[in-house]
Design a protein that fits this description.
Blueprint: H1 9-25, H2 29-47, E1 69-77, E2 80-89, E3 94-99, E4 109-117, E5 120-130, E6 136-148, E7 154-164, E8 170-183
Antiparallel strand pairs: 1-2, 1-8, 2-3, 3-4, 4-5, 5-6, 6-7, 7-8
């Protein structure tokens, strides 16, 4: 499909210009959230190299783990969290993502997921991106691959944000890790 190239100084600067442009001009609800993630990712990549960060919780206690339920998640680049959110994974294969961003621009994103293996799941978001004048800027694709902890109360995995221009041409990719903790009724 597409090849991901390592950031060189010119490529990084081009990416940073694109990221700043998207984060400043985005006004569509979920697009703001993902643009903020891209901007946060560019900041972290400029400061440090990527380090995988995830851990499983010892409080896992479900006998038959499932992704279905409410989660508190963190998106990380290296040791820095670039976004936190609540996610609801529904039995029908849909997901609702409510990031910790300014609510005036709208904060709910929608996705689709599927079970891909033992305790492993894939998630896809497709977001239309618009500037403050309502002009179409392209799309942002958020993808996650997650593995549940031993008993299903934690998960860890990876995410990618792929940015496309209005004609569908791939522009750049940001990748990192994602961790989650199940929220249960007490």
């Amino acid at each position: 499909m597409k090849s991901t190239q390592a950031f060189n100084s010119v490529g990084f600067l081009a990416c940073l210009v694109l990221v700043v442009g998207l984060s400043v001009s985005a006004s569509a609800s979920c697009s703001d959230s993902l643009s903020a993630m891209v901007a946060g990712a560019a900041s972290v990549q400029a400061q440090s190299s990527l380090v995988q960060q995830a851990s499983e919780s010892s409080k896992d206690n479900n006998e038959h783990p499932s992704i279905i339920g409410l989660w508190y998640v963190r998106f990380n680049l290296g040791d820095q969290t670039i976004q936190e959110a609540y996610q609801i994974w529904n039995a029908g294969g849909t997901e609702v993502h409510n990031p910790n961003v300014d609510p005036r621009s709208g904060t709910v994103c929608l996705g689709a997921w599927k079970h891909t293996g033992r305790r492993t799941y894939k998630l896809a978001h497709r977001v239309w991106s618009y500037d403050i004048n309502g002009n179409f800027m392209g799309t942002i694709h958020l993808s996650e691959t997650l593995t549940l902890g031993k008993h299903g109360n934690t998960h860890r995995g990876s995410f990618t944000l792929d940015i496309y221009d209005p004609s569908g041409v791939f522009q750049t990719e940001v990748a990192g890790s994602v961790t989650g903790e199940r929220i249960s009724v007490e």
